[in-house]
Amino acid sequence: MGKNVITYTKLINLNQLLIISNFLFQRRILSMPRVARNQTETSFFHNMTQGINKEYIFEEKRYKKKYMELLQKEANEFNITLIAFTIMDNHAHILLYTENINNMSLFMKRINEKFAMYYNYINERVGIVFRNRYKSQPILSEKQLLNCIRYIFYNPVRAKMVLSPEEYIYSNFQDFKKKDETKNILDEIYKKISHSIEFPKTSNEKLTLKSDFLDISEDKEIFIKEFIKNYEKEHNLTICRNKKDMENMVKHIKKEVNVSNILLAKILQLSKSTIVNYLKS
């Protein structure tokens, strides 16, 4: 699973794996988010964590369930309020509320360490599971907060995994709609926020990447790759795609998602001129 992965036999027991994994994680500074010190005058943070080498560490259902379980359990331990989260196949988005940024760092470190130990044990491997740092974005306004909530819950819809947030079981969308705890915190901080955050009625509108929450090129790559992966599943496409398949896929992606020809060419490993020719035909 990559040059950093060392495969071991079944003779290695769980305790050995946990000790080795913990040592490796302590050497990588997982608890240090990318947040400038002058940007932390808020209690709301949008965090994203991703598999090493962009691997699909959450692809199996059991891995998504385990990460959700860790999120909810450790949030109580570190006095974190989970506002919105969604677990995708190779990354996760988490919007949280905390009055102590150090608690957030410890919280993210804990859940990623525990998940890595679990993942390594199941796959009989040792090594890094997550990228060396999770990304953290301070949420500084009411508008940004509401947009972030919508953005997180609509991630699987944008990736064509489901038709609506309600259908995606690896998020806390249902809890968000039912529970009053999160809404009360929102009301306490932002007095103007109502108890009903509205979501689009349909998913027919063109899915845009022009968002405050996808302003880094590699994040766009994650999204587009997930979109392509689900398109291929839906249309039963194999690795050996013919020219017509590629043409149809390129046209569909450009129709549904705002993505540049340059980025799309990079992801599909095609030339920009090829993308342009597909769109013209």
What is the strand and helix layout of this fold?
Elements: E1 6-7, H1 14-27, E2 44-50, H2 61-77, E3 81-87, E4 91-97, H3 101-122, E5 125-126, E6 135-138, H4 142-153, H5 155-158, H6 173-178, H7 181-189, H8 217-234, H9 243-256, H10 261-268, H11 272-280
Antiparallel strand pairs: 1-5, 2-4, 2-6, 3-4
Helix pairs in contact: 1-3, 2-3, 10-11
Write structural notes for this entry.
- With 281 residues, the protein is of the alpha+beta class.
- The chain has two domains: 184 residues, Alpha-Beta Plaits (2-Layer Sandwich); 64 residues.
- The chain has eleven helices and six strands.
- A hairpin with a 3-residue loop joins β3 and β4.
- α10 crosses α11.
- It is globular and about 55 Å long.
